[in-house]
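quick one, 180 residues, struct below
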Amino acid sequence: EKIVGIGEYVNQILGELTMIDETPTKKVFIAGAKRLKAERALFREELNKIENALNVDIRSLTFEDFATSLTGEDGGRQANYNKFIREDANAVAFIFDTTAGEITEEEFDVAYTSLKEDKHPDIFVYVRKRRFPFFMDSRLRNIKKKIFNYGAEYYVEYENLDDLRYKFSHDMKDYFNNKS
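---
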């Protein structure tokens, strides 16, 4: 039997380890108003479960994950979110309750334009179901119109947090099963 030097042995093991997992990280931006903290936390929790169940590396980010320091870039933090959505995100999940704020609408427009031009990121929109849908906020109405005009629409209404959890989890499992 050939005696292998410790350095050669370590290099062999390291080489084998680097070949084991080269799965690319899937990046998901979760967009929604500041007040929808519970919904964003729910999405993160479900993505963590899916990551473990499907053995997929998922990195979920919200505005809370970006540095709060001043940047030298024009547009500040919002420019950083938009750049991540446009260049890095594989998917963006939007959560709306009763209205769409100006910033979330801007994030949607960035994702939508990028999807039309560059075929990414994939967009998922979850909107709390209303008793009187004709009172829908104008920004939300514009977002809904864009989704349905695109043709590959993905717009889901939910009743409550449990319903949102079920629908989001089901959708993300299907998404990551088809993307992996």
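DSSP finds six helices and five strands in the chain.
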